[in-house]
Amino acid sequence: MKKLILLATLLSISLVNSQAYIGANDNKFQVGANVQSNATGINASYDFGLGENISLGVSSTYALSVEDAINAKFKHRFDVKGRFNANLGNVLNIDENFDIYPGLNFSLKNFGGHLGMRYFFTSGFGLYTELNTPLAKYDTGTLTPAEKLHNQFTISFGAAFSL
After folding, report:
1. What CA–CA distances, in Å, run from 144 to 110, 139, 157?
2. Is residue 112 within 8 Å of residue 132, measured between CB atoms?
3. Any bridge partners for residue 48, and if so which?
4. Mean pLDDT score, 29-43
């Protein structure tokens, strides 16, 4: 009986059709780790599909592990961004489960760009990684180490969910 259940499970998993980005009304939620110089933290993002290759969303990061010498308060550890993505997975036609999405974001700390990739193993679960960099900082003077937390190159990675 156990072998029959295992076989049925394997067959059903192999028949699951997943797709990284469907287009309009597609909802993606991502949660994972954020790694940067002098801090590590958590990142969460939500994207909503507006068209075949366009999505808008919001992303937030909180730096958890910050070096004591930086003396970062909550306002330095937290950032929230509005974002625009160009979902190019179906344009590049690599794999229907894979999406690559360059984009722009407007945050409380800067104006920046990102390059993300996600791969879905099932219709609801996948993995993502995202590279972020500021293009223009709102404070053009000399930044304190705490102000630099969200004004530098970062890498995020974790789990992606299709809602």
Report:
1. 15, 10, 27
2. yes
3. 27, 56
4. 94
Would you say 126 and 97 are in contact if contact means Cβ atoms under 8 Å apart?
yes
> Where would I find the beta strands (DSSP E) of 15-142?
27-36, 39-49, 54-66, 78-86, 98-107, 110-120, 125-137
Go through 43-69 and write b for each residue having 16 or more CB atoms within 10 A of its CB, e for each that does not.
bbbbbebeeebebebebbbbbeebeee
- For 103, residues 6+ apart whose C-beta sits below 8 A from its C-beta are 83, 84, 85, 86, 113, 114, 115, 116
Cα-atom radius of gyration of the chain, to the nearest Å?
18
Q: 42 and 156 in contact (C-beta within 8 Å)?
A: no
- Alpha carbons 86 and 138: distance in angstroms, whole number: 24
> What is residue 10's predicted lDDT score, i.e. its pLDDT?
44
Per-residue pLDDT of 73-85, as tens digits, reads 899 899 999 999 9
- Name the most confidently modeled range: 12-16, 23-27, 134-138: 134-138
101 versus 143: the higher-pLDDT residue is 101
Number of alpha helices (DSSP H) and beta strands (DSSP E) in the chain: 3, 8
The burial class, CB within 10 Å (0-12 / 13-18 / 19+), for 19 is middle
